[in-house]
């Protein structure tokens, strides 16, 4: 078995492509794509699609000297925080991300957690099944909790740059 350099998930070694700046093993990237494929083919599963994208992204932070990687981690953590705090529609979630992206230059590198309790290896076997959505929700929640050290930073960033978040805090 080979450990993913991003999330630590164990998969049988395999060759293949990986993402440009979200660093992972080829097997973990393939598992992520398997989960995405199930979501693209089901209107129901599209409801958790953004949790999948954000969760996998923040488990694969990549090179902290690469601005794209730093911004990706910050933006996906911020959207994960927002989605977990309050259910918002996919359209609102996308709008929030576009809004965040205008402020991405302000994001600082964040040291990732030493380990993640749940990974794509725990979700991919359930891709497209009745348990898919619940697995993804649990994966998202646990991963956000694993990043606890930086919750204060992300919430403060949201307070400055997200009107929707500011409204929630009232
Ligand atoms: Zn991984």
Key features?
54% helix; 8 helices; mainly alpha; single chain; two-stranded antiparallel ribbon; globular; 2 strands; 170 residues; binds zinc ion
Bound molecules: zinc ion
Biggest pleated sheet:
2 strands, antiparallel
Structural class: mainly alpha
The radius of gyration over CA amounts to 15 Å
Shape: globular
What would the average pLDDT be, to the nearest integer?
95
What distance lies between the first and last C-alpha atoms, to the nearest angstrom? 49 Å
Strand percent estimate: under 5%
Number of strands: 2
Relative helix content: 40-55%
Low-confidence stretches: none
Question: H/E order of the elements?
Answer: EEHHHHHHHH
Largest sheet, spatial ordering of strands = 1-2
Description of the molecule:
The chain is mostly helical and 170 residues long. It has one domain. The chain is 54% helix and 2% strand. A two-stranded antiparallel sheet has the order 1-2. Strand 1 and strand 2 form a beta hairpin. Helix 1 runs antiparallel to helix 2, helix 2 packs across helix 3 and helix 2 packs parallel to helix 6. The N and C termini lie far apart (49 Å). The site of zinc ion has 10 residues, from loops.
Nutshell version of this structure?
With 170 residues, this protein is mainly alpha-helical. The chain is 54% helix and 2% strand.
Helix and strand arrangement:
Blueprint: E1 2-3, E2 10-11, H1 26-40, H2 49-58, H3 67-85, H4 90-101, H5 120-123, H6 132-146, H7 151-161, H8 163-168
Antiparallel strand pairs: 1-2
Bound molecules: zinc ion.
